[in-house]
Amino acid sequence: MAVFKTLTDADIATFSTGLVAGVDEVGRGPLVGDVVTAAVILDPNRPIAGLNDSKKLSEKRREALFDEICEKALSYHVGRATPAEIDELNILHATMLAMQRAVAGLVLTPELVLVDGNRSPAFTHQGLSLMSHSIVKGDGLIASISAASIIAKVTRDREMDALDAAYPQYGFAKHKGYPTKAHFDAIAEHGVFDQYRKSFKPVKALLER
């Protein structure tokens, strides 16, 4: 499939007259937890104002948009790949798998899947092969991808907050599992547990030490 760097609603209409699903991921870089993806089919009759790349929104705004997307979207679904799957497949292939799971879980079958980034896995839904396109920086260009980025981001952040409650000594609520100095210091002091990605170099190095 071709890669489109910019797409407007009119552009999408030229090759899709049916349902369009946007897909994005969160959590490729952290040392711990699942990589989380989301697929969202928006309702053109119920527009949502203020959608954007989740990283460009405040936490308060993301939370508000999360609720609005869940209320107004025609369909949405969260997919994920576990740390064990990441260690087995590598982070790229695990992310592609999580994206496929997100699309497969939609209650409606999209005609087209738009994926943030520069590559897209093959998608199927209820046995049907779907057309897909990858869009560089699509989370800031396409409303459905923006919505997916928000759903994925809020979902994973909440999971890191829950992990913080279970393991407060690691500081997950602050760094969300990313490789910060504070996180490295916590790992060095307290070690790693099952939800860590043991194939990631910093974690692997600590385990070997």
UniProtKB/TrEMBL annotation:
One of its GO terms (molecular function) is RNA-DNA hybrid ribonuclease activity. Manganese or magnesium. Binds 1 divalent metal ion per monomer in the absence of substrate. May bind a second metal ion after substrate binding. Its EC number is 3.1.26.4. A divalent metal cation binds at residues 24-25, 116. Pfam families: RNase_HII. The keyword Cell division does not apply. It comes from the Bacteria. It is found in: Cytoplasm. It is an enzyme of class 3 (hydrolase). InterPro entries: RNase_HII, RNase_HII/HIII, RNase_HII/HIII_dom, RNaseH-like_sf, RNaseH_sf. SUPFAM superfamilies: Ribonuclease H-like. GO terms for biological process: DNA replication, removal of RNA primer; mismatch repair. Belongs to the RNase HII family. Endonuclease that specifically degrades the RNA of RNA-DNA hybrids. This is Ribonuclease HII. It comes from Shewanella decolorationis.
